[in-house]
Predict the structure.
Amino acid sequence: MAEKNMVEAVRDAMSEEMERDPRVIVLGEDVANGGVFRATQGLLDEFGPDRCIDTPLAESAIVGVAIGASLNGVIPIAEIQFADFIHPAMDQIVSEAARLRYRSNGGWGCPITIRAPYGAGIHGGPYHSQSVEAIYGHVPGLKVVCVATPYDAKGLLKSAIRDPDPVLFLEHKRAYRLHRWDVPDEDYTIPIGEAEVKRDGKDISLITYGMMLHHALKAAETVEAEDGISAEVIDLRTISPLDKETILKSVEKTGKALVVYEDNLTGGFGAEVAAIIAQEAFDFLDGPVTRVASPDVPIAPYAGVLEEYVLPNPAKIASAIRDLAAY
Amino acid sequence: MVSVRESPGGLGLTGDQLMDMLYKMMLARAIGQRVRMLNRMGKVPFAVTGEGQEAAQVGTAYALAPGKDWVVPYYRDIGVVLVIGQTPRDLLLEALARGESVSSGGRNMPSHFSDPKLRIVSGAAVVATQIVHAVGTAFASKLRGLDEVSMVWFGDGATSEGDCHEAMNFAGIHGLPVVFVCEHNQYAISVPWTKQMAVENVSVRAQGYGFPGVTVDGNDVLAVYGSAREAVDRARRGEGPTFIEAKTYRLVPHTSDDDDRRYRSREEVEKWAKKDPIIRFQAYLQEHGLLDAKERDDLAMKVAEEVDAATEYAENAPLPDPESALKHVFAEEKGR
Ligand SMILES: Cc1ncc(C[n+]2csc(CCOP(=O)(O)OP(=O)(O)O)c2C)c(N)n1
């Protein structure tokens, strides 16, 4: 066991998987030099230029070549430098990777992992801050993971690499160096599609993922200390497939659901979570299913005051908890 | 323009192989015609076929080693998949969207070929995305040190897409064993090639990616084969990609939903019908004493019988089980 930050955990997962399975390669922009977030640091030295490959600056080709290679016995980890720049590859992800198994009636599979740092809170402006999980979470045939802790990152990335289907692996970049938490040195995996209760509580369920997990945990501490409200915090970790059971079990216990996400409100992934709760836990609800999210502006404006203004934070979440708890 | 009008032995093809090429071209033609007929009969909601492009398809595919090399076709390539090993039955099952169709079990539109055993990679309807996949299969062949070539087919319109550029650039950088085949049939639906590119021969673009491009008479199956043979041999020797532009013409509307009278004259179509690649190849074989009129008619009869038998089989084959629509989203049937 050693203390690692999330970016180190991501690197360890890749390095260990490349060691374990010679079919695994990493490709993307600047990956040979360690990548702009240093997530591929050392992989070139360890595994050589045939397994840690700098691509041309062409996102559609990064994903499209990964798809083709995956049909021919290679297990690619494609890095998209920032999730904001994944859009040129959307066609390859949505039309190709995600549909390949289905459209070939199970004849072909596409075992690729697409890693992308995502999320706001680092003064990244409108093009280094985007949350793209709702866009891709809508797509059948694609698994979407959102990680925000070192332990989850390592275990889930290993599962993604070993998965027979395409996985979009979103790493919240604000969480990359936020903490140094214990991460086992040995091999372990966390199943894709399992949420985790990160904090037990009995009065209200906070359902969240990504950087909002950390904000929700802080808010939960605050309301516990100041208002005596006991909030349960669920980290979805995987957006698709979604772990409905864990969500519903918690809401059935607390009767109150607060869905927290960083993306702008309308059509965000939390809307799907809210719909599921409204439909499937209706009999247990003791208040309106409520969302805390950013306002409907491009996420996120650059200036610190603007960014702070739009993004949810522990204070905004705490205030929503108090309102809902009092309902 | 390369034109290989050598003696039949000049390309290293035997008389049997030449006859087989003709047979595959005629079979492709007959299947295309059949599928369009089934469409007019109301049995197939949509038909997209490639009559007129058989030389470009059969001539290129013939240079590959079926089952070993990677085949990434587009929706006109009935001739390609026949050469690689799909049967009339496979194609009719697919056109009629039957459950046992190997391509997609009724999930994809007709002419979206797939056959994992034959390494025919499933395609989307999205123009040009497949070009990148062929670069990916070739990249894997190179990384793994495997003696495989990837070949990918697309139209002249597809060369305008960003994916075509991204694919060729990637292939050039890594010197990959991939052959790009542009079936230049002069139209992308109604848009003429002159609105697609500002160059006479799109093959010149290959130079900008660091590998050779050739333009060939796409209605001359031996000329096509000659350039494909050279490209495949180059790729196998580890000398990298080649771009082949086969100038040809689609003799039929774009799809069953298209009326080509709106954008091209009947005179133009007639002119190209006179350059029909099948008639040309038959004349060539007759000239060289490899085919007589009776053999030609016997072959036409055999093709017709095979297509009839395949149609009958496919029409009687069961439709997909409706509940199969929920399968194969992911590897394990857990659903979402
Ligand atoms: C990305 C994309 N845009 C538009 C279409 C609609 N479309 C289908 S075929 C086609 C023309 C393709 O022309 P070309 O590549 O020259 O091939 P051809 O059909 O002539 O053989 C178009 C525009 C599509 N399928 N995909």
